[in-house]
Design brief:
binds zinc ion, alpha+beta, Elongation Factor Tu (Ef-tu), domain 3, Threonyl-tRNA Synthetase, Chain A, domain 2, 34% helix
Length: 412
Amino acid sequence: MNSQTIKLYDENAYGTEFTAKVLHCEKADSRENLYAVTLDRTLFFPEEGGQTPDRGVLILLNEDDLEKLKGEADNLFINDARKIEVLDVQIKNDSICHYLEEELPEGSTIYGKIDWEHRFSNMQQHSGEHVFSGIVNSRFGYDNVGFHLSDSVVTMDYSGQLTEEELKNIEKSVNRAIYENREIRAWYPAENELSEINYRSKKELSGAVRIVEVDGYDVCACCAPHVKRTGEIGILKVINSQNYKGGTRVSILCGFRALEYFYNEHAMIQKLAGEMSTGIENVPAQFKKQQEEMSELKRKLSESCEKLLLKEAESLPENSQNACLFTDGDIDPNVIRRVVNSLVEKRGGYCGIFFGSDKDGYRFIIGSGAGLNSNAVLAELRKNYEVRGGGKPAMVQGSIEGASAQDISSVF
Ligand SMILES: [Zn+2]
């Protein structure tokens, strides 16, 4: 049962349909309610070397189908109800395992079809990665020590640090290689040929080594399907980079994924420009201007709040050393602190400002005059309400829930 599955994608990365014999089918031990199916040959690329597996369907063929197949009938498999989705593809004991929700009889013949859009996208990303890594390697000597091709983004980890400027230059070179439309060739060299080839590899390889060569840019051991010529990569865009374990982690997008990325970014910046009533080239300057205006407004608002609070403080009854004020709204804590200080200076007792509402609770700053401890007010409030916070004797801050302005006033 451990006979190796023939990898049809090795020879032809562009094949989408195939027939095969079911060699083995069993309940998958690791996946509940799924069957693990091994075929004598397959077009489904399994999860391998950091790349996600192919998607697609299998169809169990009956006598009729097989008869028609001999006559090369078109539209043989139009019935969607017969399609069995391939939910995952993994390598197990040297064989390629297809995970399905249905059981398939051993010895039967199936027809398989892979999701070409998904596959071609993976081919664009993976070939783009090879060109990128090849240039990094030849120009800087760094190795690609980590590779992950997910269904959204491609990340590579390089063994050395690359600056923004260097990444930009590499990106340009990759795109030049794309426009040069170089040939990409994948093959299994004989042992004596292999020993003559200088190729990149992530690990020590055993067994037959598959070489993928991008003419003039890269030679690398790789098991995945690639595009035939670099032109098919379309475009490569670096979308992120960061220092990672002493090297650099780079995220890229190629082909249609890159195009999708440009669509989204362009739509976003167009929307921003529209809302700012300006051209997209003016968005950064306009944004900066609005930020400056906003901080100026905030400063003015704080000033007005401070004046207002001081005015209210003046109108409080003068017969008490203690005082508390209430305000809604989000006021700069520095303003609150200044007003509390001025209240304490005038009255000498416990003075607090509460900002918020009866419904949502209040945040507060409470100060006290010489010889007093503001924590005493907190202790008093804690007897009946849920209070968080604390501080030094001269000033405490925190929040209170479940108390109305009237409740709090009565404590003062
Ligand atoms: Zn590869």
